[in-house]
Amino acid sequence: MKKVRNFLAFGLMAIAATACSSGDVELAKKINTDPSYIGKEVEISGKVETKFSIFVSSNSKFWNVSLKTENALNNQDVESVPLKLAYGKGKSSIYLDIPDSQREYGEKDIKIYDSNGNVLAATDKLKIKGLVEKEGDGIRLVNVTINKD
Question: What distance in Å separates the CA atoms of residue 49 and residue 67, rounded to the nearest whole number?
Answer without folding.
Answer: 9
